[in-house]
Design a protein that fits this description.
Layout lengths: L4 E3 L13 E5 L7 H17 L9 E4 L2 E2 L14 E3 L4 E5 L10 E6 L9 E6 L3 E3 L1 E2 L4 H13 L6 E4 L6 H4 L5 E8 L4 H15 L16 E3 L6 H5 L7 E4 L9 H10 L1 E4 L4 E9 L4 H7 L2 H4 L9 E2 L5
Length: 312
């Protein structure tokens, strides 16, 4: 079955990605992160090669291991990661020879992984590559710092690890997209996930003690907001301030109950680009009717979409 990605923005703007760092996240393996990332990366690369974007060629990397023909654990077929001449990518040194992209090693990343040393490389010709990246935020930060310091890339797409949105908070100024595969079996759980992400990404920014309804009614939670730390918040507090929404570790039901009783504010907002959805066994009309409009209203998500393939 051909899967079409529907980008649930009022309008898909390539400028939202060009010149920015974007994490492509999702709740599980094979939810479509790499496919979506490849499509946007290809559009960014073409914009540079055709001169419609004056910046540097884009860079692509992953957190962990991706781009192999088949998943090592499940054996499921996986999409390759195509690159054009001049594109920047990050992988283990052992995979460079087989990439077919005539790679030039620009630098090696400090430390090592189970698959060996990680290298930042430039494609000498078009080809397909396997991406291997670090697991930790510090190494991702090092790579992004190197790309910026050496003026190698101003557009970066990162295939994030499964359900690890916390990585986004470690890179100031980055954005994220949330990718889901929705079918008739998981549609209820998927809608719940979408509601939760939309609610978290839409939390207001803390602007001072005036955000409480009365003096002294703001509670500050350092670190993670869990059921345990929430229980320690004084009942008199009508507002809770956290660092950013990735610190919230509450299930959807717990979060909804909290938001009904208190305001939750963040010190640092994180830019949310929206959801990229692949529907299997559902037509467009069915999917759009499932969207809870009140929850999504004003949260970037609208009942409008455009097939990203139309931008080819």
């Amino acid at each position: 079955m051909v899967v079409f990605f529907k980008v649930l923005f009022v309008q898909f703007n390539l400028s939202d990605y060009l010149g920015h760092t974007t994490f492509v996240t999702g709740p599980e393996k094979h939810c479509g992160k790499t496919t979506f990332m490849n499509r946007v990366f290809g559009l960014c690369s073409r914009a540079v090669s055709e001169g419609t974007h004056p910046g540097k060629p884009p860079a692509v990397l992953t957190v962990g291991y991706d781009g192999e023909a088949r998943d090592y654990l499940s054996g499921a077929r996986k999409p390759s990661v195509p690159v054009r001449t001049g594109d920047i990518f990050v992988t283990a040194e052992r995979f460079l020879r087989s990439s077919g992209a005539l790679p030039e090693i620009l630098e090696t990343v400090p430390g090592s992984t189970a698959l060996g040393r990680i290298a930042v490389a430039r494609a000498g010709r078009c080809g397909s590559v396997a991406l291997v990246g670090p697991e930790g935020n510090s190494a991702v930060s090092w790579i992004l710092g190197f790309l910026s310091m050496e003026n190698l890339a101003d557009t970066v797409l990162i295939d994030g690890a499964i359900n690890r949105i916390t990585q986004v908070s470690g890179i100031p100024g980055s954005s994220f997209v949330y990718v889901l595969r929705i079918d008739r079996v998981n549609q209820g759980k998927s809608m719940e996930r979408m509601q939760r992400i939309a609610a978290l990404a839409g939390l207001p920014v803390y602007g001072g003690h005036g955000d409480g309804k009365k003096s002294g009614s703001v509670a500050f939670v350092e670190g993670a907001l869990t059921a345990q730390t929430l229980a320690a918040v004084p009942p008199s507090a009508d507002a809770i301030v956290i660092d950013d929404f990735t610190k919230v570790f509450l299930e959807a039901g717990e979060l909804n109950a909290l938001l009904r009783s208190k305001r939750v504010l963040v010190r640092t907002p994180i830019d949310f680009r929206g959801f990229a959805i692949s529907c299997r066994g559902l037509d467009d009309g069915e999917f759009l009717r499932m969207l809870p409009g009140e929850t999504m209203a004003g949260k970037t998500i609208q009942n409008l979409y455009r097939d990203i393939g139309a931008l080819a």
